[in-house]
Amino acid sequence: MKWLVLICFLLSFNANAQEGRCPADESLAIDKLEQELNDCAVVDYGKDEWQTSEMLKAYDRSIDCMQKVAHHIFDKYYTHYNASVKKNFDNYVSAATDISFDINQRSDMGRSIRLAEVYVLEAAGRTHFMVKNLVGEYIKEIRDECNEIHEFDN
Residue 4: CB partners within 8 Å, gap ≥ 6? Predict the structure, then answer.
């Protein structure tokens, strides 16, 4: 019986989600942003021997790329509040970096035992994850809003 209720819920949710549809050109533009994010999120350490400095640079390149995708989103979909949205996002990236290092290395115990470069990489990875998820949330919200605004277009 539980399975039947779950299946009915999922089917009704899916039906409701499909009611509003973005126009094809707008949907493709959102898909392109999502693909750009996925391309940026790939951390390419290079083909040579992996050194910590190169790995950190790879994370930095990926995060910078994701920031550019976010700014592209803001330029296209947040024109009215563009400057403040960009500033808030950039502040988030900076705070995410600081928080990641706080979590990994700045506790009383961590600062004495987590001195190795691997913990710097772990913090960079956490920042990367946080930024990717946030940009993904912006894209998801734009897609949802597009579906909502075109819900009754036919």
Answer: none
Q: How far is it, in rounded angstroms, from Cα 28 to Cα 32?
A: 6
Q: CA-to-CA distance for 89 and 74, rounded, in angstroms?
A: 10
Q: Residue 39 carries which side chain, given as an amino acid letter?
A: D
Burial of 142 (0-12, 13-18, 19+ CB in 10 A): buried
> What size, in residues, is the chain?
154
Residues contacting 131, CB < 8 A, separation 6+: 63, 66, 67, 92, 93, 96
Distance of CA 79 to the CA centre of its chain: 20
pLDDT tens readout for residues 12-41: 444 444 446 899 999 999 999 999 999 999
Whole-angstrom CA distances from 56 to 39, 46, 118, 139, 146 are 18, 12, 10, 26, 37
Helix axes 82-105, 117-149, angle to 10 degrees: 150
88 vs 37: CA distance, rounded Å: 19
Answer yes or no: is pLDDT of 50 > 80. Answer: no
